[in-house]
## 1
Amino acid sequence: MCKTPCPIRAAPNPATEESDVERRIAFPGLFAANTHYPEVAHIVASPSTFLLKPHRQTTDIHHPFTMPSAVKLYAAIDDNDGGVFNHWSFFIDGPQNEGKLVFQAMGSAGRFRFESKNADSRLYPNLIELFYVAEIDAARIKDVQVIAENLPIPDSTPGWNCQDYVLDLFKALERDGLVDKDDDGYRARYSELWRKQDGLA
């Protein structure tokens, strides 16, 4: 015998409600499905509306994309298709495709020009090495792009080429404070990159 009063179920009003039997006859599939889905605790049926009520509340958890706080800067070293020197370019490894940028000096002695494009240096078929040099705050990518576009190309300097452009760009980032020139790791990597130049004795 129940120690607490049992709830009394009111009889359906024939004028306004259908009985459970009538609902099960009219919609057998819905009631049968309930036996296979224990998470559905109540089914309220009417001639035109069905409302499924879960037995517990659930919370949707969203994982929005977040921009990384830093992006890496590389020197991409490519085979120059039989040229005397390997080709170098400056690569920003941004978080998404639109954030992956390549800056480079294209042409030949006395006729070099700046070129910028949205690309991933890892996908270049002639890539020999992707050499990590530094990293910057992701919010400063645009600043790097402006510096790269305005970096002087000294066509009158004998021997200046695409490799010098990459080295000069890192030095420009130092001057503008985007790269910490006093960081020991950065200085060691820059020195190693400098020694990778073709033609050095």
Note: The first strand starts at residue 40 and ends at 45.
## 2
Amino acid sequence: MSLGNVEEVKRTVRNLIKKFDYDKRELNQPLLKKLKELIKRDAQLIPEFVDAAFMNLKSQDSDKRLCIVLLVDYFFQRSHAFRLAIVDSLQDFLVYTVELDPLYFPLPGPPEAATTLEKETLQIFKLWVEKYVGGYPKLENAKTVLLSSKTFDFARSDGQTEVERNRAEADRIRKDIVDKKIIDQVLFDFADSKAHVKESIIEAQTTISLI
């Protein structure tokens, strides 16, 4: 393993992030092929590649984190050595992708990208568990941790978490409260206006009776 190849791996990962199609969620194929060839020629580059991936996984941009998740999944599906490296650091991977510790490691913005990152990662992790749990016990351990902290339902096809469902319900309740306040204010204003109209009519009738 040469220092030049290590730097090339890091540079290629950075370029993959720059060229990532956020709308289509697609990795740049020429750069992906280049990275694949580098790793294929020298498996000793895998730890360096994983380090580069985790370094970028800490980016304060959920779109960039999503790029890394898709990149990790690509190699996870193709390399036993890569799977071993990832499962050894699986808890850190989940911390930065599914808000495993929202108090100290909340997902960065933009909000829509953070939601997408979480859903995509959970769906990918579900696939990993289904396909590889037999050969990698740490996947089962990570699943247990995830279920206990996120109460994630693997049966849900949209990958939505209990936290996310609670957040959506809280948003709905807040909206209902705001809507009710608006309606109450309109009714109050209408009642107040109606009272003024009634007073004006009485005053007019009194004036007419005095003429």
Note: Residues 1 and 44 are 6 Å apart (CA to CA).
## 3
Amino acid sequence: MRATEHRLFVDPMHINIWDTVGLEEPEMGVNGYFPAIEKAHALIRRLREVGGVNLLLFCIRGNRITTTAQSNYRLFYEVLCEEQVPVGLVITNLEREVNMEDWWVRNKKSIEKYGIKCAGHACVTGLPDDRGPDGKYAKSRKAMEDLLRQHDGSGIREVCQGGRILKRRWSKGADWIREPLGVLWRRWRTTLILLINQFY
């Protein structure tokens, strides 16, 4: 899985962000997804070997929760990480919200209905604005920093096995891997975030 590393400091943590492209194109058939799943499995195993997985960052667009998002959540949370790693939900594209946190108030029950459990969330926009510390961009940055600080690596470390899916037939169809998803791990005071981005 191709990834680009970026480093930043969120007091008191040094964070390495691995920004990746999506696993595969959504138009590919089931056979195209197996190599992508194997790459995701290998990546998670590699992260486990260097410190363990502490937090999955699951990024979704703020229009609505889809069955595809649910499938991706299940693949990474339930199968690859065996329900042992907390999920931080990041809701993006909220530029049009007057108060971005209102999205969470309106949609929390929908998220629960889809069976997505999260240990924290951040409602954000990636579009810069000129409003300084009162702007949505600054508030988004603070929301992300707060989410990361909540999960600074003090929880479970050696938990992600990531192997069961490769040892059995996969019958859920090809829609498991489309939404952006991320993995966060920490070693000492260093944290790594892996963002898997796919836009369609």
Note: Residues 46 and 52 are 9 Å apart (CA to CA).
